């Protein structure tokens, strides 16, 4: 399981799909990679991984807690929700993106639904610098999703009109690869609400007016500068997102549960999430990555977690490769200490030596 929390300014994974190379590398040394949209979404850029499971954050937390399982699928029928607040031309851009995904990628979508009221998103920033947000009309969103569920939608893509604030310092910092994604926290609120209510895979794409061209844009933010919509990566991810199952449902051989997660990888200063806390009480090996700095300071040491510390994701990939090969990571070091007797055994051996006159 690979987690990079949303809206906390992660140095890797805090921008436009910039943790995707990490996911691609990890996918080569594991049987299955469970991760979430923040890692895999790159606006109009995406990279489908056959062995990766695209799991929304609330569902991921429920899975890690052992309450929900994941059932891989070949294809989902995706329902599309559009916020009534989206202007006609911008709405058309998103509908064209949906049609392009159907015609070019062969994805299966239902007819779309427009909410019966503007959803009213407000963006907020915490004192730590992490971002969050509120939605004024959650009831309207849930009514739209209910219609799609009645139309047999198996996954939900949501496009909500977000505030344009191209002159804000936060946005300028983000475009330069230096700040926190100002939208991410509010996006998580939207998808969490849908998944919690309907137990369906969900991901969100913000509707925004295109920004003026800036030649100094950071490569980490550049994916969001390419067009009029961030919807393509969401549709691709949801097309094969696993379905959520519960314990009372009849199990199938391909179902995945928390006790099958061998390792969790996350930033070293972001260990306080629900999934990390749940898996820290299990046999799952937790690998923390020092180089992926965030605006948080919630470390494994402060929480009393037993973890394996890696300086980089490259080292984390090596740790997993060694685990897969059945090799203890310590054996890859040139300095291997001699094997020692257990503490109780050591004192007993010393006493025996004294009795025999050898010590």
Report on this model:
- The chain has helices at 20-27, 37-40, 57-64, 88-105, 138-150, 169-175, 184-198, 231-239, 274-279, 300-303, 313-325, 343-355, and strands at 33-35, 52-54, 68-71, 77-82, 108-109, 113-114, 121-125, 131-135, 155-161, 202-207, 243-246, 263-267, 285-289, 308-310.
- The chain is α/β, with parallel strands linked by helices.
- The strands form 5 sheets. Strands 4, 5, 6, 9 and 10 form a 5-stranded parallel beta sheet that branches. A 3-stranded parallel beta sheet has the order 12-13-14, covered by helices on one side.
- The longest helix is centred in the first third of the chain and has 18 residues, at 88-105.
- The termini are far apart.
Q: Count up the helices.
A: 12
The topology string of helices and strands comes to: HEHEHEEHEEEEHEHHEHEEHEHEHH
Which regions are unreliable across 5 or more consecutive residues at pLDDT < 50?
A: none
Extended strand count: 14
Radius of gyration, whole Å = 23 Å
**Percent helix range:** 25-40%
SS class: alpha/beta
Characteristic key phrases:
359 residues; alpha/beta; 5-stranded parallel beta sheet; 3-stranded parallel beta sheet
Question: Outline of this structure?
Answer:
With 359 residues, the protein is of the alpha/beta class.
SSE arrangement:
Elements: H1 20-27, E1 33-35, H2 37-40, E2 52-54, H3 57-64, E3 68-71, E4 77-82, H4 88-105, E5 108-109, E6 113-114, E7 121-125, E8 131-135, H5 138-150, E9 155-161, H6 169-175, H7 184-198, E10 202-207, H8 231-239, E11 243-246, E12 263-267, H9 274-279, E13 285-289, H10 300-303, E14 308-310, H11 313-325, H12 343-355
